[in-house]
Amino acid sequence: MIANSFRWEANAFIGFVERQRNLYRRYWAWEAVWLLYSLVTVLSIGYLASGLSTLGLEPSGVSLRDAQLFLLIGALLWTYLSMVFFEIAFAVTWERWEGTIEYTFMAPVRRITHLLGICAFSLAYGIARAAMIGLVVVPLFKLDLSHANWLSALLIFAAATLPLLGLGIFTAILPLLSPEKGEQMAFAVQGILLLLSGVYYPITVLPLPLHLAGLLSPLTYTLSAVRDALLHGASPSNVLPSAAILLAMGLVLVPASVWCFNRAEARAKRLGLLKRSG
């Protein structure tokens, strides 16, 4: 009985992964547009750093090359993190857009299976898209990553997966609570994370209340530890404390987000909010 149940859920998981893949194939032109947008955003950050010297704004205590590396790595990481975050957060929006939300939510499949299927594809696609942008940015700006410790970076990426999924699932609740404004609120959440997590600057420059809030963001530890691994060659033992913090956050965020999602789903069904598109 348990084996049959596991096989059923595993098949459903693969089905949701394949459905996401088919959706991207159907809307490949839009994905090309968003890929170009992400590339242009990263390039803009790179040229911003390159232009500091022409404005006489060379940072004190750090070379322009190091500043450029700091900003470009932050921009590349944010491209990946924000893309995965949005794809998970827009799980409900995708269902509404396709007109499948009622069928999916009535299917005899655990909600965690549904959400993890979407998450798995989002992670793979996010890595692929960030890699494509990196293949353009690294040679264009002649980034020197010869001292990077890739094992440490991979360790942090793996540890950051759980809290990133938890944040995405929490945000996916918003369209269930408010069909009219939930999707827009996801952009607000992204903006808050961008402000607090030190994507383009160390969080030490923030006012104390925002600095303390930034310490609660898993993206803060992800960005800081990956930068240490890529820029300074930090060993796995050096980034282990950050990895442990990220895993602890994930063990709290994922179960809590799934529980809250189930509660929001029950409320949406009770109030008839599933089908509405605003």
Mean of residue pLDDT values: 83
- Taken as a percent bin, the fraction of beta residues is under 5%
| Approximate shape | globular
* SSE run: HHHHHHHHHHHH
Question: What ranges have pLDDT less than 50 throughout 5 or more consecutive residues?
Answer: none
Report what the structure shows.
The protein has 278 residues and is mostly helical. 78% of the residues lie in helices and 0% in strands. The chain is globular. The termini are far apart.
Topology:
Blueprint: H1 2-26, H2 28-50, H3 64-89, H4 91-98, H5 101-106, H6 111-140, H7 150-172, H8 174-177, H9 182-196, H10 208-214, H11 218-232, H12 236-271
Helix pairs in contact: 1-6, 2-3, 2-6, 3-6, 3-7, 3-9, 3-11, 7-11, 7-12, 11-12
Short structural summary:
This protein is mainly alpha-helical. It is built from twelve helices and no strands. The longest helix has 36 residues, at 236-271.
Task: Using brief descriptors, characterize the structure shown.
single chain; 278 residues; mainly alpha; 12 helices; globular
